[in-house]
Amino acid sequence: MLRSVRTLAPALAVTLALVVLDIAIGGTTALVPLLVVGPLVAAATAGAHGTTAIGILSVLGAVVLGLVAEEVSTANHLVAITTVAVGAGLAAAVAGSRERHRHAREDAERALARADLLARASALFEGGADPMDHLEAVAALPVPLLADLGVVDLTTPDGRIVLGGVAARDHRVAQALRASRRRHPVPPGGDHPVAVVIRTGEPLLEHVTGDGQLERWATDDDHLELMRRAGYASLVVVPLSARGRTIGTLALVRLTGGRRYEPDDLEVAAAVARRAGLAIDHARLGRELGAISSDLQAVIGALSDAITVQGADGRLLYANEEAARISGLDSVEAMLARHPRDIMAAWQVLDEDGEPLGYDDMPGPRALAGEPTPQRVVQVVDPTTGRRLWRRNKAMAVPGPDGRPRLAVNVIEDITEQRRRELAQTFLAEASKLLTASLDPQRTLHEVARAAVPDLADWCAVDLPDERGVLRRVATADRSPERTRDATLVIRERSGDAGVPVGPPQVLRTGVSELYPEITDELLRAAAADPGQLEALRAVGARSVLVVPMTGAGGRPIGTITMGTIESQRRLTTDDLLLAEELGRRAGIAVEHARIHRELAGIATTLQAALLPPSLPDVPGVELAARFRAAAGGETVGGDFYDVFEVPGTPPAWMVVMGDVTGKGPGAAAITALARYTIRTAAFYERAPSRILGRLNHALVHDDDRRRLCTALCARIEPHPGRGVTMTLSCAGHPLPLRSRPDGTVDELGEPGTLLGAFPDGRWSDVTLRLAPGDDVLLYTDGVTDIRGPDERFGGRRLREVVARTAGRPAAEVASALVEALVGFQDQEAQRDDIALLVLRARK
């Protein structure tokens, strides 16, 4: 407050001195025009609000001096008041411009720092190196521009959180944090911000407000002391995400004494994390698909504002050189000679959403009409050159003696570069989300094409080669749906050696983008396959077109993206080409990513099917039904298995087996096969299920190269058609089976036994029982009870309820009801583990 008074003191002194001097020399209005000096002085020393206040005071002073001199409403007095009012308005506009220049410089410094961070992130992820080998470099990206400490954490398939990389201004802090994480990793279920973000998938911004907060985050006393000693003050944690799941986090920490984080810091960190998450996920899949890059630059220069003053009739009373320049006129005089309505009519003026604007919608005319005048961002297109510009328009009404607006001071900022970069960042960010949100390339490409219209172009098309190498249009978006359905507009490869010399076929062959700022008839002739297509292309009236390749791993073209303008009459530029090329790189990576996922899913499905029996045998006196659901994603084979097979002996008997090998992938599949065939072999020599499990344990323990843990349940059943089933059951660390009777009672069968593969010797007991006709027995893996709902796991209680509710039904209906209950309970989160269940029912 005191600073504001001090900056206004010179202007206030000049204004009061002039009023006093005029009164002292006889109360004439001779000095009234000099009152404009006060606002001009304020414009040089104070801000827009202070200058406006001095301007109002000067106008009031002019009115008061007219009253003192008894010359109110005389021509001289009105001219003097108008002079003061115009000068005050111009002074306020100049002061506002000066303030905006200062804010622009501050914003530019921060924007340049963030742009450098994004550029370095692009360089790291586009360099061709495996991101998993450079996690320290990923953690170092925000240090020191955006953080004092950067940390990358990753999740493991079994849900643990491991430190991937750490970097800090002070290397001692980084070393201490590494040592702390080695001793005590972050617990997945704790209150540490990293654990919270991994669980929720939502970014987090926290300010340290007390020691209690650090105590909740600490993994041990040493970690708590480290955070205290380093001076944790503010932190941002964003998820590393890919394919709709969180694979880790990027944490940025500010220490005591630095600027605290704000929401825009969260956005920058999220932008880096999105790229890092996708790159790391690709590395985990074992394929180098190329780096995700972004050609984002934020170079903001000093703004040179255009200023105009309109009279009550709307005509221009004043304009500076910048106003004439951005209006496309040769001089200020030429601008003053034309009405603003006529100047605006020479341009295509649209609002931010691309809708046409009229002269009366602009801030200046609204200010003269006495209406509210919020600032307005508009886009203008010069029909002659096709260049699109963005401008921020502001207006301030200057009231006359009667209180009605007599003048409107307009300030017009050219924000084209800033707006272009904002649109590029927003578009690429939204496109990246779309590309990583789905593994269906067809759906993704349609979304990307629609995202480009109308902000980037009037129409967009995506072409991919079919199995014969012929380009096919796979996605389109257009302001005019009729054009989208017109097959004659599609430029495909011609027969013969030359092919099409321009357009998508040429870009697919060479991998070199094409930009045609102006569509000429010569270009249309080169692209058209026949006279009919030439006439169709001419009828469209396209103004400008660009074609870029969609590139996969190694920069190999796998398709093309074409964009064009028609109705907007805008001419595409090299900036649009760079943005489209970046889109092409990201789209190409996403398509190859989806193809990899399909291939892996196919391999996993084939291998999983080989580990399960093709069909269940027909056991006299027994109904059997089995269900198996692989974990979401389907690209990795699991370790759940079951089997039913006949064994020699009298009376006839069958073995029923259910098991679960720890882990996933080829290693788990190999152990699963070993377990199945070891059990089948042992069953020919051993009658007791406990001894069969012992033999399997011996095989697992002595397989040093592939040793894994395994749970299993083995049951020998001897059917007595019409009189029930004799079951001898042995369990090795596996969930005990559930028996349901026709009256709905449910109980567990068997006794727990030692986990297989853990120890050379173990304890496995046989329990023999009799199943009466109508009794059901459910064998299942822990994936059934571990399925997560909105708040908790499915658990044993719910499983018992479903089993009791389906008692007495056929085995197939019981199995289907269980699967329906699991699917209905499951939250939106993907199924993390395989599910296997087998229902055995003694027939009546």
Structure description:
The chain is an alpha+beta fold. 42% of the residues lie in helices and 22% in strands. It contains 26 helices and 26 strands. Helix 1 packs parallel to helix 3 (48-69), helix 2 packs parallel to helix 4 (75-125) and helix 6 packs antiparallel against helix 9. The relative contact order is 0.05.
Largest sheet: 6 strands, antiparallel
Q: Give the fraction of residues assigned to helices.
A: 40-55%
Query: How many runs of DSSP E, i.e. beta strands?
Result: 26
Separation of the first and last Cα atoms: 93 Å
Q: Give the overall shape.
A: elongated
Query: Structural class of the helices, strands and pairings?
Result: alpha+beta
Percent in strands: 15-25%
Q: What is the averaged pLDDT score?
A: 78
Number of helices: 26
Question: In terms of topology, how is this protein built?
Answer:
Elements lengths: L1 H23 L12 H9 L2 H22 L5 H51 L9 H6 L8 E7 L5 E8 L2 H13 L9 H8 L3 E4 L3 H7 L3 H10 L1 E11 L2 E11 L7 H22 L21 E6 L4 E4 L1 H6 L5 H5 L3 H6 L2 E3 L12 H6 L7 E6 L6 E12 L5 E10 L1 H22 L3 H11 L7 E7 L5 E8 L2 H4 L19 H7 L3 E3 L4 H7 L3 H10 L3 E8 L5 E9 L8 H37 L11 E8 L10 E8 L5 E9 L4 H17 L6 H13 L8 E11 L3 E9 L5 E3 L5 E3 L18 E5 L4 E5 L1 H5 L8 H11 L5 H15 L9 E8 L2
Antiparallel strand pairs: 1-2, 1-5, 3-4, 4-5, 6-7, 6-11, 8-9, 9-10, 10-11, 12-13, 12-16, 14-15, 15-16, 17-26, 18-19, 19-20, 20-21, 21-24, 22-23, 22-25, 25-26
Helix pairs in contact: 1-2, 1-3, 2-3, 2-4, 3-4, 4-10, 6-9, 15-16, 15-21, 16-21, 22-23
